[in-house]
Amino acid sequence: MEECREQFRTGYRPMTTNAFEKPSHQGTPIWVQPFLPEPADSRAAVLHAVAAPDPGNAGAVLADLSSLAAGTTNPPLGGLLKRIMDLAIAITALVVAAPVMIVVALLIRITAGGPAVFSHSRVGFGGKPFNCYKFRSMVANSEEVFKTYLEANPHLSAEWEETHKIRDDPRVTTLGRILRKSSLDELPQLFNIIRGDMSCVGPRPIVKDELKRYGDHLQEYLRTRPGLTGLWQVSGRSSVDYASRVAMDTQYVRNWSVWLDLVILFRTIFAVMRFDRAS
Asked: Is residue 278 within 8 Å of 179, Cβ to Cβ?
């Protein structure tokens, strides 16, 4: 009894033999979260481990993606606070970048002809598709050029299937390479952020065919708006394989905070200066 009173007075509790046992998990942990108080639903929240995505587990979601988007009732990740941050940052950045965007648009019209901005369908929050804007960095007949290029270089088909990117892409113009290396081609996505299609920070916007690559982590991707920048963009960009990108997107959603967004935005400034890491 005296020992119990001493423990109550000092707050000391003897450590059990299981105190240093590691929790069992699958996959490779890429983010270790500091100790947190026990959540209300009594689930442990000390360590997140992301297993390799299983494409088979995404089938049920992909089969009914349209109804999933229509039935989404929960707000996007971060709620109103993240949305206010997005609007403040995007509007400020748009005002500052407007002169550069005008010059880029004129250069595209002069050197390549045709529209300076193009849109491409991407998957947004809850699986809802949206038109993602970019400065045009490819030739006008890009689809025909790319099909002919893959037929002449069939060994590159595997690279395209793995990353949805290809080195020395023949569709990209000289000006387009500069825009991609500097990430200036993505400036029109500021309008997507203002419209509510995207967020300043989030997973990379993907096309519908890429959803199966997320496997059993697809629900995490669909919980948030895609981002103009994110963990993938500040962690190596094109040098990071697709499985690692999925793991980064998953961990971002599970560990989101205002502070994490601010850190990623700050690191983005230095990431865009690393031309060797750009897409």
From this structure: no
Spatial CA neighbour of 127 closest among 35, 64, 215: 64
- What's the token pair of residue 4? 């119990």
Phi/psi for 29 (5° steps) reads -65, 135
What's the token pair of residue 170?
Answer: 């023949």
Contact 249, 232 (CB under 8 A): yes
Dist. CA 206–CA 208, nearest whole Å: 7
237: alpha, beta or left? (left if phi > 0; alpha if psi -120 to 50): left
At 59 the pLDDT is: 52
> What's the CA gap between 275 and 94, in Å, rounded?
22
Tokens of 67: 């109804």
Nearest residue to 182 via CA among 275, 96, 97: 275
Give the pLDDT confidence of 111-160 residue by residue, as tens digits.
Answer: 888 889 999 999 999 999 999 999 998 877 777 777 777 777 776 676 66
Summarize pLDDT for 109-124 with one digit per residue, the tens.
998 888 899 999 999 9
Which ranges constitute the DSSP H helices of the chain? 2-10, 59-63, 65-70, 79-111, 142-152, 157-163, 174-182, 189-195, 218-222, 242-254, 258-271
Q: What is the CA radius of gyration of the chain?
A: 22
CB 112 within 8 A of CB 139: yes
CA distance 139 to 186: 17
| Separation in Å, CA 124 to CA 142, 193, 244, 245 | 25, 11, 20, 17
